[in-house]
Amino acid sequence: MVAKEREGALTGYRVLDLTDSKGAYCTRLLADLGADVIKIEPPQGDQGRNMPPFLHDEPHPEKSLYFLYRNANKRGITLNLESDEGKDILKKLAKSADVLVENFGPGYMESLGLGYDMLRDINPKLIIAGITEFGLDGPYRNYKGSNIVDFALSGVMITSGYSGKVPTLLPGTPAYDATSVAADIEILAALYCRDAIGKGQKIDVSVHEAARTGLYPWSVPIYSYSLNPGAPLPMPEGRLGAQIYPVYPCKDGFVRVIAITPRNWQALVRVLGSPEVLLMPDWENFIYRVGNAEDLYAIMLEFTTKFTQIELWEAGFREGVPIAPIYDIPTFVNSADATARKFFIEVDHPVAGKGKYPGSPYKWTETPPSVRRAAPCLGEHNEEIYCGELNFTKDDLMALRYAGVL
Amino acid sequence: MSRSALEGVMVISLGTGAVVPDAGKILGELGANVIKIESSEHQDFVRTLSVKKNDVPGFNETNRNKRSFGVDLRTEKGKDLVRRLIKMSDVVAENFRGGVVKSLGFDYESVRKLKPDIVYISSQGFGRGGPHADYPAYGPMLASASGMLSIWKQPEDPFPAGSNSPLPDFMASKFVVIAILAALDYKRRTGKGQFIDMAQTEVAAALMGEKYLEYTMNKQVPQPLGNRCPYAAPHGCYPCQGIDNWVAISVFTNEEWRNFGKALGNLAWTRDPKFADIPGRLKNADELDKRIAEWTATREAKEVMDMLQGAGVAAGVVQRAPDTMSDPQIAFDKALIELDHSVVGKRLYPNIPFHMSETPPAPSRTAPLLGQHTEEICRELLKMSAGEIEKLKAEKVLESA
């Protein structure tokens, strides 16, 4: 297979996407890179269509902003996998597919007769990725996950928010996204070596495992390094964001400062006009600053509030201390960087209309990723795929629709 | 019979901090031959976070599965050795501050002349093309500048505090791997390499794209929700026995709510009709949270998790490292691995969460000491004699551990 010029890096590969909101981002990233992703939804639609936020706050299956974003660049068909005809159709689709991604949970595909062994017999080069909450087996096999529960288990949440207050959820779907990117890495590695080993493979990804090892891989080593025979146990891990990466108010909002080395700190003092109170040598020590963050905050206020976000940002760059503004979402959308890079791309959806979507976070010289199409309406590509590729007639489609297959 | 997925792939890592080093760790685990270019003069800044450069947990986690080539890139002889390594490589990945690789003569344009089909990825904070292309990029800054941090807070917090984890770094690192693998596969099929220019702020924004659509399509400024969910209650973190111990609980359906009540022994308030359906629970979420917090406060987080999960309700300990180390599912999955590092000794690291039926991961290796593999790489890849190596070491072009 040879990809054509100016197409995506993955143009030519076909991905069957049986996921709901847990795996939607996994296949979205493959679609951005050019893969032909066919989203296969049950006839009543993917549950992800019901996820807020909605366009103009109207709950409607074609207006979930979550669904529209996570399913852009995919084609969409409906199929009832629990019907006999539906199973046959999936097997036909599997013949020409390179990848299949599902997140039904342990044993479900097998219970339909669509497990890895069955599909491998149909297409030995097929790569199947199964996403589960807690793995295929083990003591938590039947446990339930959710966005907040998976994030809690990831080890990031206990460190998020303020010391002495409640741990704080990261917006979005961080644990599912960590799982999606782990699945993508495995899928791409399996595609890369598929010709060399002469076959596809089965990939199992657990949300708990991928999020715990992926989102904050330093937490277990940091603890493990602090355990020494005979020494007391280390202090329990706390929420130190405000102390390690302090936030200070300024004229028009807040900035965050990353001063770790003494050189960073000296630069910060210069940015603020070298006030005497900040020249005390103790402040040069990062650990001392973390331990006295509240006192330091009270002192810093007087100086940081003399400047704007941009003044501090630019002065930090000149002097050698990383400072960044805390932007709200509109300010980032309208920022000079996002504008110069054309990061937001206009996408037109037949029901939801035009909107500016975040694009891919990278520019490629040969195979630029792009948002080529909006998320599919429910069953939008049924005719294109069932009639165009599987040789069904339009009459067949009507009959299968009535029978609850499509 | 079994081989790793990336057998035969060679990667030059001009990496520092979290993003490119973490990507190299993953590529190494998939079987690639990853070489980290570093020197005492130009150290990965994570090595400098402790007084002992080979004893930093963050460094030693993120730099596993690669070899260290100690070379001074400011010397012409040193550059020449790296050029020779690049000619043998498939991938160059760098995340130095914008402009640094160019000043060293290792930007894409220069590298492409040495190796026309190279896959080259640059990962900076703001990416090329905008006014902040050359600004330094630490994850917590990028969470700030991208808008991510503005909604990562409780509604009543005066400003966001973020987290100890330098997110979005550990997601950006996976995007680097995805890009490299897709570009390598394209190269495998077409013979063409390319340049990929990543912006880590854009990774942060891409992870919560629907929030940006709330602004671009609905003209609303997304507001922080804290731990609440617009379509489920209870949905939050609840204090447990001990100091700063918490459990996360989420109840989506009425069936889950009834199961929740049963798990609590059908306490009177769990049978209150005002909590019986979703609108009622959302409307009375404050009271619900207070009741649940009273109930969880006298119990251990793990006990609450198992009780509720046993009843079919999603619940999880807000884990710290020791909770993960005693998590039976993590043990079952072998999601942590003990490695014996020559300076630090036996320590625990997260394993790569990959379960691939045909291409098992390569054996995990500890992070290198600075310059640990300089001589090995000189001998094996650059075919240098012992005399040449010694001479360059004496000239301070090379350094070895």
Strand content of chain A: 5-15%
Largest sheet of chain B: 7 strands, mixed
Give the overall form of chain B.
Answer: elongated
Query: What is the CA-based Rg of chain A, rounded?
Result: 26 Å
Tally of helical runs of chain B: 17
Described by the principal axes of the CA atoms, the overall outline of chain A is elongated
Strands ordered across the widest β-sheet of chain A: 3-2-1-4-5-6
Radius of gyration of chain B: 25 Å
- DSSP summary: helix tally of chain A: 18
What keywords describe this structure?
heterodimer, A: 406 residues, alpha/beta, Rossmann fold, formyl-coa transferase, domain 3, 2 domains, 6-stranded parallel beta sheet, 3-stranded antiparallel beta sheet, elongated, B: 401 residues, 13 strands, 15% strand
Question: Could you characterize what this model shows?
Answer:
The complex is a heterodimer of chains A (406) and B (401). With 406 residues, chain A is α/β, with parallel strands linked by helices. Chain A folds into 2 domains: 14-214 and 342-402, Crotonobetainyl-coa:carnitine coa-transferase, domain 1 (Rossmann fold, 3-Layer(aba) Sandwich); 245-327, formyl-coa transferase, domain 3 (2-Layer Sandwich), CATH 3.30.1540.10. Chain A has helices at residues 24-32, 65-70, 84-95, 108-111, 116-122, 147-153, 174-197, 207-214, 219-225, 241-244, 262-271, 286-291, 293-304, 309-319, 329-333, 336-340, 382-387, 394-402; strands at 14-17, 36-41, 75-78, 99-102, 127-132, 202-206, 247-250, 253-257, 323-325, 344-349, 353-358, 362-364. In chain A, strands 3-2-1-4-5-6 form a 6-stranded parallel β-sheet. In chain A, strands 7-8-9 form a 3-stranded antiparallel β-sheet. In chain A, helix 1 links the parallel strand 1 and strand 2. In chain B, strand 2, helix 2 (57-62) and strand 3 (67-71) form a beta-alpha-beta unit. The radius of gyration of chain B is 25 Å and the shape is elongated. Chain B has 2 domains: 10-207 and 333-399, Rossmann fold (3-Layer(aba) Sandwich); 235-325, formyl-coa transferase, domain 3, CATH 3.30.1540.10. Chain B is built from 17 helices and 13 strands. In chain B, helix 1 (19-29) crosses helix 7. Chain B has 401 residues and is an alpha/beta fold. The longest helix of chain B is centred in the middle third of the chain and has 22 residues, at 169-190. In chain B, strands 6-5-4-1-2-3-13 form a 7-stranded mixed β-sheet, with helices on both faces. A 3-stranded antiparallel β-sheet of chain B has the order 7-8-9. The chains are: A alpha/beta (406), B alpha/beta (401). At the A-B interface, helix 2, helix 6, helix 7, strand 6 and helix 8 of A face helix 2, helix 6, helix 7, strand 6 and helix 8 of B. Strand 6 (202-206) of chain A pairs antiparallel with strand 12 (355-356) of chain B.
